[in-house]
Amino acid sequence: xxxxxxxxxxxxxxxxxxxxxxxxxxxxxxxxxxxxxxxxxxxxxxxxxxxxxxxxxxxxxxxxxxxxxxxxxxxxxxxxxxxxxxxxxxxxxxxxxxxxxxxxxxxxxxxxxxxxxxxxxxxxxxxxxxxxxxxxxxxxxxxxxxxxxxxxxxxxxxxxxxxxxxxxxxxxxxxxxxxxxxxxxxxxxxxxxxxxxxxxxxxxxxxxxxxxxxxxxxxxxxxxxxxxxxxxxxxxxxxxxxxxxxxxxxxxxxxxxxxxxxxxxxxxxxxxxxxxxxxxxxxxxxxxxxxxxxxxxxxxxxxxxxxxxxxxxxxxxxxxxxxxxxxxxxxxxxxxxx
Length: 338
Hints:
Elements: H1 2-13, H2 21-26, H3 28-37, H4 56-59, H5 66-103, H6 107-139, H7 147-192, H8 198-206, H9 211-222, H10 226-337
Helix pairs in contact: 5-6, 5-7, 6-7, 6-10, 7-8, 7-10, 8-9, 9-10
């Protein structure tokens, strides 16, 4: 009996193991840790899991009180600014890969650079779309006139302006390298046909209506430096592919610019509507105060007039009383004399 009680006491005093399902649901890292260790773990060995920044309040209209909504807004706007920083870093890497592609003489390394460039351009395109949508989500959030609305507008406008600057930088980088790629195509074509006319050069560089390949093929067949001409032809084809990729990127950037311009116009209209509403409310409030002042003055004037009328009535009654008293007294005296 004593042994049973001692065993029960040891069970109560032993540290409890975390086996509740709700803990596994809320802390998946703890569940993974238990699976790696092959069993349950003690509370003291758990590490606090990290969570992403809370942005739900921003995207669902700011549910909760104002403090929670602004905290979520600050978290989201900071995350957007970090994304813009990554976007600028990608642009710098894209510029570097363009430079390597132009300066590389190794065909294998050149193909590797092109593959990296394609992957990075795709990532940057997706990142730009994500940033645009997140800024749009912030702009679409309803806000009451006041200090919080001004803070939201200023911070969101700043993020939007930085993103537009990044887009302009990206656009300039792509335009510069498009021009350099075209210069490279022109040099390679003149290797094959040194006496090419400006019209022929323009057709090959811009590959208008597919005529560039035909002109280059004719020049290639007439060239006496076959090996060098074939290498130049392959590079021209590669550069044409690079130019087409740049043209596609510039089209996407133009669309982003258009979307951001529409967003600015919509935001301006929203701000004007809010300001108009605030002006109307202020005007109505001012008129209400004026009406209240008039009502108070009218009430005071009415009370003053009532007191004046009351005093006048008292005076009239006093005069009438005096006159009646005098007349009665005179009549009494006359009766006595008679």
